[in-house]
Amino acid sequence: MKRLIVFLGLPILFLFFTLGCKDEVTEPGNGNELIVKPAVTKTLVNYGQETFRAAYPDTASLHKIGEAYKSNYSQEAKNQFIDYVHVQVGSLGENKEMFIKCMDLTGCKETASISLPTNVERAKYNGEDVWIIQLVWGMEPMDLGHYKCFAIGISKLDTLDFIRCK
């Protein structure tokens, strides 16, 4: 009897976990979910130039988003990314209007710019409150493999550090 329970129970348990954990992947646009979402976090990290440049770029998020969107890139998808980040910033209890001003400084929202935010972090840089915004960009969608990383001071809306691929 125990063998029968184990024999029948394991496949049912496997199906339960497989079906319950499956993510639905949809194309961007028309109100659908994003294929891959940018990371939006709030940390206690106090970066300096050396630690900032050791932590960024976050190549995992750059690669995932760059690969997922090089054949699915559109202005609509970009707008969805930006909207998603704004909502997440608000859910962290942060000032969305101030974040939008920081995001504007990156040039990401410009329609001529082929770029997507991949990683956004609320942290400190040399003791100052910052938004760290990492973008994947390219000259054309199939070229989404370049990066720009900004540490933007919140109080003065100034760029405290900037890294890009060469």
What do you see in this structure?
The protein is of the alpha+beta class. It has one domain. It is built from 5 helices and 5 strands, in the order H-E-H-H-H-H-E-E-E-E. A hairpin with a 4-residue loop joins strand 4 and strand 5. It is globular.
Low-pLDDT runs of 5+ residues are 4-8, 10-31
Q: Indicate the structural class.
A: alpha+beta
Q: How many helix segments?
A: 5
- Along the chain, the helix and strand elements come as HEHHHHEEEE
Please describe the biggest sheet, giving its number of strands, its sense, and whether it closes into a barrel.
5 strands, mixed
Instruction: Tell me the number of strands.
Output: 5
- Reading side by side through the largest sheet, how are the strands ordered? 1-2-3-4-5
From the alpha carbons, calculate the radius of gyration and give it in angstroms: 20 Å
Q: What spatial form do the alpha-carbon principal axes imply?
A: globular
Describe the secondary structure blueprint for this structure.
Blueprint (H helix, E strand, L loop, with lengths): L1 H19 L18 E9 L1 H7 L3 H11 L5 H17 L4 H11 L8 E11 L2 E10 L8 E8 L4 E7 L2
Parallel strand pairs: 1-2
Antiparallel strand pairs: 2-3, 3-4, 4-5
Quick structural summary:
With 166 residues, the chain is of the alpha+beta class.
